[in-house]
Amino acid sequence: MTETATRSPFLAAAADLLGPRGFTTDPERIEGWLTDWRGRYTGRALAMASPASTQEVAALVRLCAQHRVPIVPQGGNSGMAGGATPDESGAAILLSLRRMDAIRRLDAEAGQVVCEAGVVLQTLHEAAADTGMRFPLTLGGKGSATIGGLVSTNAGGTQVLRHGTMRAQVLGLEAVLASGEVLDTLTPLKKDNRGFDLKQLLIGSEGTLGIVTAATLRLLPAPVGRATAWVGLPSIAAAGRLLARASRTLGETLEGFEVVPAHCLDSVLAHLPAARAPLAQRHAWNALIECVSVEVDDAALRESLETSLAGAMEEGLLEDAAIAASETQAEDFWTLRDSISAAERALGPAMQHDISVPVERMPDFITAAVPDLEGAFPGTRAVAFGHLGDGNVHFHVLAPAGAVRGQWEETQGKAVSARVHDLVTQWGGSISAEHGIGQMKVDELARLHDPVALMLMGRVKQALDPLGLLNPGKLLTVPPATCA
Q1: What is the reported pTM?
Q2: I want to staple 381 with a disulfide (CB 3.0 to 4.6 A). Which of 5, 274, 398, 441 is the partner?
């Protein structure tokens, strides 16, 4: 035990509770978890706790409440809004759920799986596939994102068009409250009218109301057919019309519709030397379309997709298209899409925005917002890419040439984000579609969100976490003790 732990009653008690595998004050062991994935936020922590069970989480939370020690829950540390990073005070403990990585039960016949919070998304995908099932949510960070983090942020991804966000996948939940009590709603019921659906309150609350320790999730039969196409388009308006047409002609087989502007594809091809452009010519916009079916095979699904695209070409909606001839080629298409964030980050400083507007308005929003931002901030480059099918794009504004990373974001970058968020609000949208608020957008949420909604969230926070110990400084700006 360190000298610090010997001096502090809390640290000594926590070390005794969790043991050397579950508790550390060693700066070298903690350091790698104190900076968020984007590298924008770095904090300090009193210690890092890594409990191995729900019971240990509950006991630790009770200990933290007794000693008034704040708690910052963390999963795979792959969040985009700084929601799992402690502040600079060093007063909080970092609560890692990564040791809680058991798949407690998988019932393929019932279409259900019970996962602990630390289960990595890719691990769940593989476990489901072994039983002929699948978990219908995926994203670029599937190799590090954990179930607890996905639930806490109500994550989205590339299959929301058909299957919905994480909120739609959660059938039951287990969570430790600020009091140390355990809420257990893991048993799923088709019909249950016993008052509030408390699990839905916790989903998307970013660890500010409770610490998710396990979840019952739905599984679907693995598809027998898959068809993937990369489409070249003349404009984002054409992409919107193609989406509407594909929804009509492909029906429920349409699972993904992603848009990629030429700039993003160019960036990825430069970032990944082995990657190749799917089409011979460069196009102003590209769409990645995926269809799956549990009833028809690959050949039949490809034929259906080809017929749909041929009709769209006759209508002038697309310029060229390539349908993947194999699983490998389909995965190559998706690698191009999933590598955009990393490729754009390599170009230099940028302000990244995770926004949504009504699906039918998104093409018009992009058409209006890009020149607005570039005109207001000369030298910047605005790019939008992502989930057009569910009205959510990642709207990045790249800094002018020569901007210094870390400085530009804190100066002109803040004004850029404010203008983006103002535009989104004017168009009836949301400043956070799937990444959460975290600490990155907490002030903007307070500035732009409905004041009645903010008041109600503050009251819920005060009721469930009156000491304000759960993930302080995230989601809400008003300390619970001063909430109305």
Answers
A1: 0.89
A2: 398
